[in-house]
Specification:
seven-stranded antiparallel sheet; about 30% helix; Surface presentation of antigens (SPOA); about 325 residues; alpha+beta; Chemotaxis protein chec; 11 strands; 10 helices; 2 domains; disordered C terminus
């Protein structure tokens, strides 16, 4: 079939032309009821290009806060990934939940609404395994359809810590209190909306050893959608506010870097003749200094005293060796 049978050349040219500018007297409001609203071809491009600064800011704050929470629960620095927010009807979301799944219902005040934190069985197993000293790489037995009391307890502790982060992330926009209500494994008893109502699903992944373990925060769309038109108050501050935010995030990430430290107990100078004439049993005299310096590479970091702790050589830290580089107050360097 020729394309001209579907659309004429004049219609094709009209669609490719840019939208005419609005006149000075033209109102920006919606078209009155009963009248046809004009829709130009680039309308969909404008929708796709639209951003939600408030939701992006909340996601960024959650990523930063979850790094600290994950470090507490998994005993190692973790990376956090925030997936794009998606909207889905509650009935469709509940049908695709895995079995078993830890469904943690939330009370949201003062909005008088409910939310949900959905955690699959693999995440619960990893959380429990690492708590008891494992590496979290094993697999939960397939025949276990119910969560054990210790799994339920650890999951609740993680969810409560997550809710504190969620409250902090939302604070610049809405003062909400997220509190733990109950835990279920059946979506029927954990329903936070009717089957046809829309919910917003925010998926976060905690990356450990290049493996992502994800959980989802489900909130009513009526609570989330109004934020699409809001802007982050921090963005209004301009370049200085953005730079300060990046400095804080960079400082936090750098402080998670692993550093190999070494200590040189003492040293002395010996000429080459004495070394050449040395025989087994000869003694090189040295003196143990009052303090020992801990170094990262060639950079001195800490000073302390040498001793023994639990049968192993150890250094008791007494003070920073270089306060300008090490800094104080969460890594902020000061000149002394």
């Amino acid at each position: 079939m020729d394309h001209k049978d579907i659309i004429s050349e004049e219609e094709s040219q009209a669609l490719r032309q840019p939208a005419p500018p609005a006149s000075a007297g033209q109102a920006a409001s919606l078209t009155p009821a009963g009248e046809v609203q004009g829709l130009h071809a680039d309308h969909w491009e404008r929708i796709l290009a639209d951003r939600a600064p408030a939701l992006e800011s909340i996601a960024e704050r959650m990523v930063s806060l979850l790094k600290a929470t994950g470090r507490r629960f998994f005993r190692n620095p973790v990376d956090v990934v925030a997936h794009p927010l998606r909207s889905v009807r509650w009935g469709a979301y509940a049908r695709q939940l895995p079995v078993p799944c830890s469904l943690n219902v939330l009370d949201i005040r003062p909005a008088a609404q409910k939310g949900l934190v959905s955690i699959d069985a693999g995440f619960v197993f990893m959380l429990t395994d690492i708590f008891f000293g494992g590496d979290g790489k094993g697999q939960r037995a397939a025949e276990m359809v119910e969560f054990t009391p210790i799994e339920q307890r650890l999951t609740r502790k993680f969810v409560e810590a997550l809710l504190a982060d969620l409250k902090q992330a939302w604070k610049p926009f809405l003062e909400l209190d997220f509190s733990y209500a109950k835990a279920e494994t059946n979506p029927i008893f954990a329903a936070i909306a009717t089957s046809s109502e829309l919910v917003s699903v925010a998926r976060f992944g905690i990356v450990i050893d290049e493996t992502e373990h994800a959980f989802e925060v489900v909130l009513p769309a009526a609570l989330v959608e109004p934020l699409r038109s809001m802007r982050d108050s921090g963005q209004i501050e301009g370049g200085s506010g953005t730079a300060q935010r990046w400095r804080s995030r960079l400082r936090e990430d750098v402080q998670e870097a692993r550093v190999t430290m070494r200590a040189v107990l003492t040293g002395t100078q010996v000429n080459l003749r004495d070394i050449a004439l040395a025989r087994p049993g000869d003694v090189i005299h040295t003196e143990l200094p009052a303090s020992v310096v801990l170094l990262a590479g060639d950079q001195p970091l800490m000073e302390g005293t040498f001793g023994v702790f639990q049968g192993r050589n150890a250094v008791r830290i007494s003070k920073p060796a270089n306060r300008r580089i090490l800094g104080v107050n969460d890594g902020r360097a000061k000149d002394n």
